[in-house]
Amino acid sequence: MAAAKRRDPDYQLNIFPQFDEERKREVTTFLVQTTKIFTSFRYEILLDHEQDDRMIVVKILGLHVPEILLPQTGPARGRIDFTGLSGPYTVQVIKQDKSVSECQVEISGGEVLIKKKPTNPFILISGDPMEMG
User: Fold this and answer.
1) Rounded distance between C-alpha atoms, residue 107 and residue 88, angstroms
2) Which of 88, 120, 92 is nearest to 105 (CA)?
3) Does residue 100 sit in helix, strand or coil?
4) Domain boundaries defined on the chain
5) Do the bridges between strand 111-116 and strand 87-94 make them parallel or antiparallel, or are there none, so unpaired?
6) What's the mean pLDDT in 59-84?
7) How far, in Å, CA of 63 to CA of 65, rounded?
8) Based on the number of CB atoms within 10 Å of its own CB, is 82 exposed (0-12), middle (13-18) or buried (19 or more)?
9) What does the DSSP 8-state code read for residue 61?
10) What are the tens digits of pLDDT across the range 72-130?
């Protein structure tokens, strides 16, 4: 029996602390991007989330065409900002087809450490900050 071909991840999740200028407070940003680059528009990724103690669940609901259709090249993006995160967390990301990728992170002192990455993930996980522009 042939081994199943391993697919490249469809998404990337960056988890990083940043200062929210609008609300004047520190937040932990969860930025989900497609690994695919779109050449016509910069789509938005619709996200939902749940937080229960040390578990954070991020649900990818699909792509959304932006209200203002300016030609722009880049990945589709979705963002969730959390306040008050500190310590260890289990993060689950769920795609529309109900696939789940799970990782363990440690949030402390203005940094995010990835303690355990998902096995056979559909999403890459990183604690590296991303430019939000």
Assistant:
1) 6
2) 88
3) strand
4) 11-126
5) unpaired
6) 87
7) 7
8) middle
9) E
10) 788 999 999 999 999 999 999 999 999 999 999 999 978 999 999 988 789 899 998 88
Q: Which residue has the higher pLDDT, 128 or 61?
A: 61
Specify the residue for token string 């590296």.
128
Q: Residue 80: CB partners within 8 Å, gap ≥ 6?
A: 29, 30, 47, 49, 58
Kindly state the tokens that stand for 63: 């792509």
Separation of alpha carbons 112 and 100, rounded Å: 21
The position carrying tokens 């310590």 is 87
Number of other CB atoms surrounding residue 112 within 10 Å: 23
Its pTM stands at 0.88
DSSP state at residue 67: S
Residue 125 identity (one-letter amino acid): I
